Amino acid sequence: MFIINCPYCGERDQQEFKAGGEAHIERPKQPSELSDDEWAEYLFMRKNIKGVQFERWNHAHGCRKWFNMARDTSNDEIKLIYKMGEKPPSE
Amino acid sequence: MKNKYSVFSLIKNAFSYHENWQRAWKDPTPKKEYDAVIVGGGGHGLATAYYLAKKHNIKNIAVVEKGWIGGGNTGRNTTIIRSNYLWDASAGLYDHALKIWEGLSQELNYNVMFSQRGVMNLAHNLQDVRDLKRRTHANRLNNIDAVYLNTTEVKKFCPIINTSPDIRYPVLGGTLQQRAGTARHDAVAWGYARGADEMGVDIIQNCEVKGIKRIGNSVEGIETTKGFVKTKKVGVVAAGHSSVIANMAGLKLPLESKPLQALVSEPVKPIIDTVVMSNAVHAYVSQSDKGELVIGAGTDDYISYSQKGSHQIVEGTLNAILELYPIFSRMRMLRQWGGIVDICPDASPILSKTSIKGLYFNCGWGTGGFKATPGSGDLFAHTIANDEPHKLNAAFNLNRFVSGDLVDEHGAAAVAH
Question: What is the ipTM of this complex?
């Protein structure tokens, strides 16, 4: 349980939010040309990092907007919140 | 040679104030080389080592565990054992385990306190009723005992349930698997550890894996906090940390690791003599031999390795418990904890070879791995020893995520994963 600073609404309790999983998984540009292995990679395979992970969150019981978060999954500490469409931070 | 546990050994040791019991397993330093190394000293890992030694005659085995054995999800679950799964592949897998449970205490000479007190799953809406009836039929076709109960029969089997039609999610019926039940979770790890140790397996605690060494596409050994260990076969049984180990070998798995919580109440006199699970409102309850109510809550939706979950998950579970069992309204909760569960997209486990020769994974058990412990160990040992899956775990390979041949127990099993 933690507090999330929604980029649109400010600090709110985590229970207002819905986790959307790993961020920056790009939808295939040419789906019809994908091999089964590539489909499996896109649909199912996940980094599932212990440490700082980039992920998507949705303020489901608030503004309902999506945003990105860099969070340390080993202690749930939020490192950075950035908007959809922005590149992940390098550090 | 280990002394056999019996009523006579108990009496004998009583005379020396129980101060002279033999150590149940040794505390060895790692050898330079093993025929097989199991990463993860939980129930599944220890069972794997036990069956490798017992049935496949591989004696030079190590189990490496970063903490202490049985200190992860083996010691954190709600100890429910059942095999009433919908799909044939799952039914085969879980009922294989249940059959081993039935003779496990005798086999291990260690009382795992397996108690076939029955598991009842409740239906709260018409779709639940249809799903549970369908599952009952599917179970019976797979030779798994299952009966459908109407509301009156539910009330008769477990009188403290509130079956009033005017509660928010009324009880419309339920299923009962009489052979299902519970076991003492720690005893399972300890019993397998003792059995494996007796056959020469080295159980190495406080030894964390730091890397997997490969030459070409074959495993050569593992780097640990206690040095390099050479081996051609590595079986990873690391539950929530499976992806961490996979990343060391350059593999990606279809897993997400999430916190799952459970809690127990203060101990009270016997009040519930079965296990009742409600999928729709998410309330699982049974009573331990100490008298505590054992309550399983749900998973959080975010990835975390922190072994703690959100308060609202526990709150939601207790709301549901109170509506179904008004008698518990003044019970106090004693302890609450979290474990990290590795969940597959289809909520079915992976017991599989990988693209790397000599590297095997047993993971993805998600929220329901405890029940499968003996079967999982047996089948994973078979897979490692023969470099081929047993027919009962063939469907649970990694390649199913490429072929699309998923074992979709999400919603199909008797529980929300």
Answer: 0.95
